[in-house]
Design a protein that fits this description.
The protein is mostly beta strands and 119 residues long. It has one helix spanning 35-51; strands spanning 7-12, 15-21, 59-69, 77-87, 91-100, 103-115. It is elongated and about 50 Å long. Keywords: Hydrolase.
Length: 119
Amino acid sequence: MHLIGADLTVIIPGRVEAELTLGEQHQQQRGFAHGGLIATMADLVAGFAGVTLIPDDYGLVTSDLKISYLHPGVGQKLKAIGWVLKAGRRLQFCEAEVWCDDLLIAKASGTMVVIEPQG
């Protein structure tokens, strides 16, 4: 998260938001925010939203992530919002949106796997 320059801005049970100021290092060859960066932001907030609902000694990993890119990421700031649709004992179903300035540029859904502590 910190390697790409993202910061968590909202953390409440089942919901997380993050922001990132776009720089040249985030762009692909046409000057848009790189699709991998957008997917990373979606995965980040969806996963952390899930983490807010499990005990501290448990873990959470992404099993699958489906992302739809709606518009190119051209602007100053990315904002990602993630939430848990359904939290189960073993699986969590999450969604995320990624905004560039005031435009929704991507929508994602993912399945997260709850990892119980060893021992």
